Amino acid sequence: MPHYADTAGSTESNGQRLARLRARHRWTQQRLATEAGYSLATVRAYEQGRRSLDRSAVVLAFARALDCHPTEITGGPYMPVSNDSEGQAAVAAVAGVRRALLRHGRPTRPAEHEVAAVDLPELRRRVAEANAFRQAAALAKSGSILPTLLRDLQVAAEVLGGDQRREAFGLLASGYECAMQYLYKLGHTSDATLATERVLWSARETGDPLRVLAAQWYDSGEFLAIGEHDEAGAIIDGALTELGAVREQRPEVVSLRGAFHLKAALNSARAANPQQAEQHWEKARDQAEELGSDRNDYQLQFGPANVAIWGVSLPVELGRGRVAVDRADRVRLPKQFSPERHSHHFIDVGRAHFYNGQREQALGAFLRAERLAPQATRMHAGVRETVGTMIRTQKRGELVELGIRLGVV
């Protein structure tokens, strides 16, 4: 089971957790360096907190060597600091969301009043509200509505028939996606994986092949997150093959194809294959140009602006700060993009500046991300590790204040 770090334990760096895992294996630093493919000096710098252990590819390399889950290095899930009432409320709702996920596939045994209350238009409205909270990274609000919403959707999917049943399962899949994102942002990766499985199952019940492919986009991410690049690649390649066989090139088909090329680019970046990552990104850019504008088919945002944002994210994944900063200077974020999407971009920009040694710019970007989506930024493993490293190596006013809000000092 995942653990909560207490207030003192949350100040531990990824490198300190790495050192404990290494000691558990009774390995020397040299043994870990050899097994993971890094130099002894690099391992020492990570363990001593002089170097930020924030890049997913590096974390995954150590996790594979030590045969552990990446969160054992990154430390999630995190407990919000005591005066962060919104964060505390978000975390308090996790148990209710988990219970709703566990009830999936079981008979709902609805009461008469629940059956009588099934109302598809009202469920559509409530799912739209949940997606709005999801896009705003309003974690406390998401947690407050998801348990009841998922229960009502499960009842609707069970008692309705025909086209209404298929629609109910489409809404249920979307509700599970909201739960998945909520849980991921709070660091509850095992529960989020459970939600992803529910998304896949519900999508299949809709009878919509594109809805199923959209669910597989998330499924590939599950394998990518634990470094199973071949499995992630197989899902992505299968989806691209299916999309390539669709004769009618409707906008949603083009959008999904582009989204899968972006996921393939991320998979390649984390597998330390920059050339292949760039190739997939360029293919995604071609699909975006064909669309001409950003779309949100199946809640998978894709289009020219989103591809430009990923053009920053990918070099960050590869540790190429200069490329990421240069591309970030050319990104123009559409106003209609969600606060969560904006904040994630500024997190990437902050990390890129940090890799360049531009610490003031990095802090500015992180603070901007926090203003847009406070809880999501404070729970972001990369932000916590990078800010912690900055504080350990150069304490400064606003930086320390941010560290206190993150719970890393």
Quickly describe the structure.
The protein is about 70% helix and about 0% strand. It is mainly alpha-helical and about 400 residues long.
DSSP strand count: 0
Beta-strand fraction estimate: under 5%
Task: Summarize model confidence as the mean pLDDT.
Answer: 93
Helix vs. strand class? mainly alpha
Number of helices: 23
Helix-strand string: HHHHHHHHHHHHHHHHHHHHHHH
Shape annotation:
globular
Helical content class: over 70%
Number of domains: 4
- Radius of gyration equals 21 Å
Query: Could you give a short account of the major beta sheet?
Result: none
Distance between the termini: 25 Å
Please provide a written account of the structure.
The structure is a single chain. The protein is mainly alpha-helical and 409 residues long. The chain has 4 domains: 1-75, lambda repressor-like DNA-binding domains (434 Repressor (Amino-terminal Domain)); 77-207, no CATH class; 212-318, Serine Threonine Protein Phosphatase 5, Tetratricopeptide repeat; 319-327 and 337-409, Serine Threonine Protein Phosphatase 5, Tetratricopeptide repeat. 72% of the residues lie in helices and 0% in strands.
Features:
409 residues; mainly alpha; 434 Repressor (Amino-terminal Domain); Serine Threonine Protein Phosphatase 5, Tetratricopeptide repeat; 4 domains; globular; disordered N terminus
